[in-house]
Amino acid sequence: MTDQELHQIIAAGLDCSHLEVSGDGRHWTAVIVSPAFEGLRAIARHQKVYAALGQRMATDEVHALSMRTLTPAEWASA
Fold this sequence. Notes:
single chain, 78 residues, alpha+beta, 3-stranded mixed β-sheet, globular
């Protein structure tokens, strides 16, 4: 999987106002900014991203994903 492919998968499953993805094909880092994160704690935000990935984590297509999940307001003030 490429950075672009993972970017497209996340963007297709989650409304993102900003999305950065980088990695080596198995280990990934992402900055994900979404209005869908409003009012949610970190674990619930990560669950939304995992839902967008579907079975790709379970099948080891995406082995590891380190996420920074922010609302648009949090991103603007960061």
